[in-house]
Specification:
The protein has 4 helices and 8 strands. The protein has 213 residues and is mainly beta. The structure holds a DNA duplex (13 and 13 nucleotides).
DNA sequence: CCTATGATGATCT
DNA sequence: GATCATCATAGGT
């Protein structure tokens, strides 16, 4: 029987691999957010890989800074950043320590604790929208900079950890260009999602912002 | 359904 | 001062 595996935690070895191996393998896994009010569980349906200093789309492209330093640390930790003046996004650090790989968690299906997410996701018109997009996902799970650097490998009291869940069949995994990434980074088809899943966010090409008048 | 735009601030050059 | 791995809303089709 393999059913017992679903609720077993992912170990650090899972994340200590090349980010392009880890990213598609995260689909179907369960992210558990432990809150004072109870657990929120999210089945991952969409992710993007960011491959370190060689990747023009990565925050680490111009080397180590105070903000991105967590990405250079041990695999299996959370890298949380604040962007567009309003939003947080959650990444999981991948690859060996010293190499700045990470996977942006872009969307998922809330399987447990939907009522705990709605207090923050009041604009969601259906459950499918609760975590449909990276900032929505972070909002739903009550994730902010306080969790930057948190270990997401299961330990008692951890705010975050992951379970094996049920990965989709290989032929249901699609990949394409990353959402909102421009320039040379746009050529890499490093966004991965589960084909046909209603919680996957719509693809948007990168649009450079015009200067304020 | 769709596209256009304003909100808002940390980070880096 | 420009950039940014975004979202919610308004208004058109």
């Amino acid at each position: 029987m393999t059913e017992g595996l679903e609720r077993t935690p992912l170990t650090r070895d899972f994340f200590d691999r090349p980010v392009l191996d880890v990213a598609p393998d995260l689909l179907g896994r369960i992210l558990v957010r432990t809150t004072p009010d109870g657990p929120i569980e999210l089945r991952l349906t969409e992710v993007e890989a960011y491959a370190g200093e060689a990747d023009p789309g990565s925050h680490a492209f111009r080397g180590r800074t105070p903000r991105n330093s967590v990405m250079y640390g041990p695999p299996g930790h959370a890298y949380v950043y604040f962007t567009y003046g309003m939003w947080h996004c959650l990444n999981l650090v991948c690859g060996p320590e010293g190499r700045a790989g990470g996977v942006l968690l872009r969307a998922g299906e809330i399987q447990v604790g939907a009522e705990l997410t709605r207090v923050r996701r009041t604009s969601a018109r259906s459950d499918k929208e609760l975590a449909k997009g990276p900032a929505r996902l972070a909002t739903a799970l009550d994730i902010d900079r306080a969790l930057d650097g948190t270990d997401a490998i299961a330990h008692p009291g951890n705010a975050l950890h992951l379970l094996h869940g049920t990965p989709p069949p290989r032929d249901r995994v699609r990949n394409g260009p990353r959402t909102g990434v421009g320039g040379d980074g746009a050529t890499h088809p490093w966004r991965f999602w589960i084909d046909g899943d209603p919680t996957v966010s719509p693809y948007r090409t990168h649009v450079p912002r015009r200067r304020a008048t």
